## 1
Amino acid sequence: MTHRVPWSAQHKKLTANITYSLSNSFAEPLTSDELIKLSLERGDTDIVEQYQKHSLEYTPNGGSLDLREEIAKLYGPDIGSENIIVFPGGQVALQTAAMAVIGPDDHAIVFTPGYQSTQEAPLIAGGSVTRIELKPEEGWQIKPERVAAAVRPNTKYMVFNEPYNPAGTLMSAETQAALKKIAEDNDIIIMSDEVYRLLEHNESDRLPAMADFYDKGISVVTMSKPWGGCGITIGWLALQDLALKERITDMQYFATACASRASEIQGIMTLRSSAWILARNIKIIRDNVALLEKFIDKYGDLFEWVKPTAGAICYIKFTGPLTSAEFAEELAAAGIGIKPAWVFSEPGTLDSGYFRCGYGESIMPRALEALEEFVEDHKDEWREGTKS
Ligand SMILES: Cc1ncc(COP(=O)(O)O)c(C=O)c1O
């Protein structure tokens, strides 16, 4: 069995001692107190009482009904509480679904660079993958004709992540429809990683959830990103196909089959306060993107990007005389954390010069200032093309 190293775990070793983080991908977290306060302000004393008094027994496999009902409200009429499977986070949901669907004879289409689980969950499940490369000169957009050309007789699964980690870009409605058509024509299940959905910088860009859009589609979502609730550890899959749901729920028994009730109740509280939390988080994000844009404009000869339109992350190219791996190491030594290109691609892939920068948190402007100070200190030597 190959020892598969998590790319982002490797990266955490590099950023263990940083002061200024630009490497996170979540929106601003609340405290438990703030979440309770929001619930009480809504007059929801019942949920706060449940939080204090709940039993510490097992929760039902696949999630308690009250949480699944609350989640189902995010979708259209084809998705009810019976179409939701709750997991302790999005990553375990991605892997469990791949294990349920993919066997050694099956092939999946995935995209790179990207979050490791969206590329490798089918591989870990024992199948084979074709990685289709996304390119900055194409705005990081998926090209449906390349996807159609990658389909094989044994292609069972396609995994994409839109809004896209690491670039914060979003596919068009036409591309989403074209991918659905390819999947329908070839009997392929689509796993749509929508963990940054609801963080579109302009709400009018929001795409339909795959669970609503395609009867063989699966949406994966987590409290971690739009609501900043990483520590709640609640994610879910939404899907119309109940036979497929049963296969995934059966596979779930062999991993973490139920979340804690405290997490579930925090999940319910978060969803009931969703409008307030999302409005606050989008404001932080838009303000931070404006600062980043100023930074990119100021140092246009050293940095370039495809401006992000969704999520709390962007992929920036350092065009100076360091690879993104070297740039990340120098920044880490100065106490600043970013994610270099190797966190998003197979080992051995050429360093693209890109690094991921997160902008979801209200403390981000201070980290950007630290980055700017670092750039001011080194820009002349970089412009001359010499390493520090
Ligand atoms: C694209 C993508 N999918 C899934 C996840 C996993 O989310 P969770 O924190 O809920 O496990 C992440 C987390 O970074 C992510 O970026």
Note: The mean pLDDT is 96.
## 2
Amino acid sequence: MGPLRSAVVATCRALAPRVSLPTADAVEAVASRMLATPSLVVAGPVSSGKSTLVNALVGRRVAPTGAGECTGLTAHYVRGPADRLDVVLVDGTRRPLPLAAGGRVPAAVGDRLGVRVEDVDHLVVTLTSAALDGLTVVDTPGTGSARRPDGVSGARADAALVVLPATAHAGDLDVLPGPAAHGPAGVVAVLGRADTVSDDDGRELAVELGRRLGDRVGPITPVIGLLAETAVTGALRAEDVGALRVLAGADPAVLEVALLDAELFTTADLPVPVEVRVRLLELLDLRGLALGLALLRADTAAGVGELCEVLLAASGLATLVGRLRDEVRARTDLHAAAAGVRELAALGESLVRAEAQEATDTGSPGRGEGTRVADAAAVLARREAFTERALLAVRARLRAGSLGLPAELLDEVDRLAAPAPPDVRIGRAGAGAVELAGHAARRAAWWRAYGSWGSPRRIADLAHVVHRTYARLWRELTT
Ligand SMILES: Nc1nc2c(ncn2[C@@H]2O[C@H](COP(=O)(O)OP(=O)(O)OP(=O)(O)O)[C@@H](O)[C@H]2O)c(=O)[nH]1
Ligand SMILES: [Mg+2]
């Protein structure tokens, strides 16, 4: 757990013995949420490739994937001592259910348990997979799916991975769970199934998609979830590579045409049985096939390991995991702690109101615990590191275009809020500490002045946050 969440927990622990039991319970609940493993919700339109990416991220082919609406229930993938599946019903009870063949989540969970699907709230899939260490991954039904339960958009999440098709539009982002409401931080967006939408690596398309979505989700990177899943889950077998090797030796003219289309590939005159071709398509699709054939033509001795390396490199999974680590894990402490502070503040406020009402009704003064909770929240919120959170909120508002700041200042705030080392954030990459400190001090002074020129309140607030961030960086660089 990071330092900010620790601070929130410490405050809660100090507060609990000094308030009434029900309030202590509410305060404890805030603390226990700080201790929870951060969760990443994977969201996006139907069939965008969410579950396939979930499998790649957890390193196992466990989430059901397929054409058409496939994921009907939200599923939480968590780390545990043994593989198991639990069905959590709407009434909160949990029922264990065996995983299906190959360790996959079975279809028609409701039928198997003898309950109606409406009575199922979500699934909890516990896996021994080390990839889930410190991160719970939540797969959701596609947005716009008739089967998507109402609860999904309200799901608690520390971060979201949005998997979008090339045809996505801004409306597809409205249904984002949790963090989207707080702006781009904590949201990583990708163009899924990038192999099916373009012949190149999909980068240009992703940039164009980002432009169309109007910056609400930050940069969009292309991923080929299918190739990542095949490469990391051990799905590819030696006989698959053997079949590819046979294909690699087939008539190049026939192959060239066959690789244009899945149906052509299964019907073409090729020296490999049709059912094997179907399996290869499921594992690799046309792009993966082309990559595999190119590898085996260049190196006939290449095996499963070499092919998986090629597939993984083409999939973009490493870039995605890197972004998730940077943007999500680095921010998690801040987001979760800021949420905790907000919860404490809201609790304090509602207690203050209730006590005031009670005082009017009964004439007796309240216990004053509302003020105690609210004060504790305020002390936490003033802590230095929470300015970072404020900075992210400012950046989110700027990106939404509601402040009308000149472009170069917008860029400056954007850079300052990025999860990067101080020299990059200050805009002097590679500079020494003395130069950096000097620049931070100048920008701190500039922003303070900018905020006090009788500027409107919203600009003054923003300038204050930027000023404090520079001041803190300056202090870090000079001590
Ligand atoms: N070619 C290709 N196919 C993919 C890729 N990712 C997923 N698919 C296929 O696309 C179909 C849908 O993938 P899923 O992962 O089930 O998509 P989803 O977003 O979870 O779908 P829903 O749960 O129904 O909303 C499946 O047939 C996958 O095999 C990819 O990167 N490339
Ligand atoms: Mg799915």
Note: The CA atoms of residues 245 and 296 lie 6 Å apart.
## 3
Amino acid sequence: MPEVLNRLHKEHADLSRLLDLLDRQLALFTAGGAADYDTIGAILRYCLEYPDAVHHPKEDLIYDILRSRDPVLAAEVGDLEEEHRSLAEATRELAELIERALAEEPVDRDHVQKLTHDFIRRYRHHIAREESHMFPAARRVLSDRDWAEIDGQLDGEDDPLFGDAVADYFRALRDDIDNLAALAQGD
Ligand SMILES: [Fe+2]
Ligand SMILES: [Fe+2]
């Protein structure tokens, strides 16, 4: 499999674990508990710093080539660039709301709950569609030379949460994700 697809697939698995943690925060919140705005804020900060800035642009690059080679198939896959733009917008909107909550400004709990729920649902749907539609279409249409060129353009941008060198400000979040994964495995 092309290196870039390996990476994107791994990042989807990581993102899914991140969404599992956000789901858990939402469940606690929906059950009437206090929201852990620090954790939710860190999750959104990561989405802005890595998926929006690094993961999605790599997919846009693949999608651009797919669209130029087979516009009909690309249209069936959907407008990926538009989805990325609207996901980034939803991320910023929710991140601003959480920032206000962290600054102890009044926020509407129902609104936080609704935006968080929609955010998780959209992200999961987006990832599932890329895995089931976009990646297989790209593998059918792009040539070995295309993949080699894309792989050659991959920068060594480190993932500040799931990479080897975890940024200090994501340390607590990484621990939460690892703990949740350990719980799920019954460790
Ligand atoms: Fe994407
Ligand atoms: Fe993706």
Note: The chain has a mean pLDDT of 94.
